Amino acid sequence: MSVEGPIWIMRDYAKCSGCRRCEIACSLHHEGRIWPEASRIRVFMLVPGLEVPHLCAQCDNPACVEACPVGAISIDEKLKRVVVDKDKCTGCGACVDACPGRVPHIHPTENYALICDLCDGDPQCVKVCQEGRWNCLYVVRRDPSVSYDLYAKRPEEVTRELAILLLGEKGEEVI
Amino acid sequence: MRGYAGKFLEVDLSSGDVKEVRFPEEVLRDYIGGRGLAAKVLWDRLGDHWEEIDPLGEENMLTVFAGPLTGYFPGGRVCISGKSPQSNGITGSTMGGEFGVELRCAGYDGLIITGRAERPVYLLITDEGCEIRDASHLWGLGSIELLKRLNREVREELEHRHPRRREWREPAVIHIGPAGEKLIRVAAVVGKYSHAGGYGGYGAVMGSKNLKAIAVKGTGPLPEPAHPERVYELIDRVCQLCFASDMLRRWGTGYLGYEVGYSLSSEPVRNWQEEWHDRREYGVDRFERRLWVKRYWADFGCPTSCLKLATIRVGPYKGAITDNPDYELQAYLGTNLGIFDPEANAYLSALVDELGFCGIQTGNLLGFTAELYQRGIITEEDLGFKLEWGDADAFAKLLHLILSREGIGDILAEGTYRAALKISEMKGVDALRYAVVAKGIGIGAHGIRSGRDYPAIHSYCCSVQGGDHTSIAYTPINELRSELTTILHDSGVYCMFNIYPPGVLDLLWDFFTAVRGWKLDPEEWYSTQARRIIHIQRAALLLGGPDVRWRPWIDDVNPPRFYEPLPTGPWRGKAPEKGEVEEAVKRYYNEIGWDERGIPKSEELRRLGLESVDRKLEEIR
């Protein structure tokens, strides 16, 4: 999808099928393997049917950058994305604790944090989601009037909102 | 060895011992995984005294196997097996979900569970191995509450053990509900609310082992395939072919409801007294408008999303959560019970899922009971309530009566076939006339009388999985719908729905070869590998026991109902002739290598290196 300027990955949770093709695409791109836990986007299924793709919100003021004790996390101004310096990162997890959505996670076998890098502007997760016509993930132009920080929510919070949206009152009981 | 994790976990619940086991390469090459490997393992360990083993006793084993294609071929599944408390044979019962994928990411291709725990337990499997944990606080719980608590407990535990990783995802879970705990023979192994491995009755086997649930969380990659680039290309090609095929994606299997009932006339109506209906108000579009809250719901890697998340938000059945319901449950917990109301059907579907019943087997049992009630064989006095066709509340009461195992509920808890035997004895009638089963397994919701649906007249007579509509005997045996093809899917362990789009089957052989490195050749599959598996399953089925044994040839029949002419619909008056079924059965025996009584032939078994099966079968030849 061609979008001018810095992009942002829009997520419409109610449309996620839970197929995890995004994880397959992400881990193939970054790790060369199908490796769900090394995917930068992870689908949480705290409640079956209420799958939540969990990925970096690319906040305007990312708490992870400030929290990093070794200065391994920075902002790439051109793409407006969060970048982890694998060599500097110690995998201490301070970024996870600082993130309001607890989005970053530590690589299963390496000592660094995994954060979405937008695949240098051509996100593979979006590609497969669009190819499948699920439309849960799509690329939009980054808009200075939008607060992306509000998307940094924990999977439990998103699941709870989704449960009530889709299941009504019963949604309160399932999570 | 490529495409496999290479290790299996063996858990002895009696002693608490856990060990890793490996199988020789040639065993994996020939028996693949899932159903095929389960048949091999069960036979090797229990075959010599098969007829003595109580499916619900300590000696039975429960296998939970992934396959080499699990996670690679789009649509992840897992295959449950063991000695079946329904057929007393071996059934490979597969269910969708992420369990098989997580297991392989944890470094295991499968679990072999033996013995019986003293108290309720669950298994927690991670990269570090397997732990048997107390489940007394989870015993008695239905699906919703169980998943809620177990997900929370396991995530906290993993976070506690590995604080560095932070924010663990939920494990994949398969479990039983109260139905499995009460050893009800129509109990399923369930997961993800409306996912179930129902055929075979393995929910009761889990219950007999005091095993409430298995949770697995792996953090590794899928086992490295032999030809990675080829595998990734094939995944993409299969997905493209599936995307081009819209029916399942758009409607799920629910589109079959009105179609099978009205056009094909092969949908069970009121315990198969009819197979036709004209209830347009029960069409899938009504389910869509009234119940669906998510159009596309899928399991790992699936491009099709035949699941549709559905719920009832208002009215007396408010709060029910289910999938679609899919065709089988629309039929078995709908038309088969005289119910033509989407809400009532979704309510019962959600209820069986919550309690851990198999929707198909249970719908078969409820319909059977209702017909006995209709005929005055079972009365209001027996039940404590009226049981009229179409009354969903009465059927819900009946479910709870079965679960209580009180009075007639205790008899019905043994499943349609065994209940029919008992009731015949009690009431002095032939209740088997109304039991629509094959080898103790309720027949899936695709009838044979109109001749328009996919099963043939001998499909259920000869299947090694009895009434299982996904695994039917078919001639020629190398056809797409043949049981030998299903065995391939159930052994590779992926979803067979993604095989249906034109062109996919041609890629399948290549897919196996690309993942495993060993060339899988269709001709060899149908003449040797699949034959070994089906012969072992057939041998186990014929040996049976200890409570029920199938007589060769004599029990390879359709249920009596299938010989009654259809009373309504476009094919009114149609039913197969017994003679023509017998001929088809004989032709099938001959084609697959069984003798005139349906016993695998000695020379055929020796050709395949199955000497132990041959020797054992001497007992019944």
Low-confidence stretches of chain B: none
Amino-to-carboxy terminus distance of chain A: 36 Å
User: Which two chains have the most extensive interface, and how many residues on each?
Assistant: A-B, 49 and 49 residues
User: What structural class do you assign from the helix and strand content of chain B?
Assistant: alpha+beta
Annotated CATH homologous superfamily of the largest domain in chain B: Aldehyde ferredoxin oxidoreductase, N-terminal domain
Distance between the termini of chain B: 40 Å
What is the string of helix and strand elements of chain A?
EHEEHEEHEEHEHH
Q: How many extended strands of chain B?
A: 17
Q: Can you tell me about this structure?
A:
- The complex is a heterodimer of chains A (175) and B (621).
- With 175 residues, chain A is α+β, with helices and mostly antiparallel strands.
- Chain A has a single domain (11-174), classed as Alpha-Beta Plaits.
- Chain A is 26% helix and 16% strand.
- Chain A is built from six helices and eight strands, in the order βαββαββαββαβαα.
- In chain A, the strands form four sheets. A two-stranded antiparallel sheet of chain A has the order 1-8.
- In chain A, β6 (105-106) and β7 form a beta hairpin.
- In chain A, α1 packs antiparallel against α4.
- Chain A starts with 6 loop residues before the first strand and ends with a helix.
- The model of chain A has no long low-confidence stretch (mean pLDDT 96).
- Helices cover 39% and strands 12% of the residues of chain B.
- Chain B is of the alpha+beta class and 621 residues long.
- In chain B, α2 crosses α21 and α7 (228-243) runs antiparallel to α20 (504-516).
- Chain B has three domains: 8-216, Aldehyde Ferredoxin Oxidoreductase,  A, domain 1 (4-Layer Sandwich), CATH 3.60.9.10; 245-442, Orthogonal Bundle (Aldehyde Ferredoxin Oxidoreductase Protein, subunit A, domain 2); 459-617, Orthogonal Bundle (Aldehyde Ferredoxin Oxidoreductase Protein, subunit A, domain 3), CATH 1.10.599.10.
- In chain B, β7 and β8 (129-134) form a beta hairpin.
- In chain B, strands 2-1-6-3-4-5 form a six-stranded mixed β-sheet. A four-stranded mixed β-sheet of chain B has the order 8-7-12-9.
- The mean pLDDT of chain B is 97.
- Chains A and B meet through α1, β6 and α5 of A and α4, α7 and β13 of B.
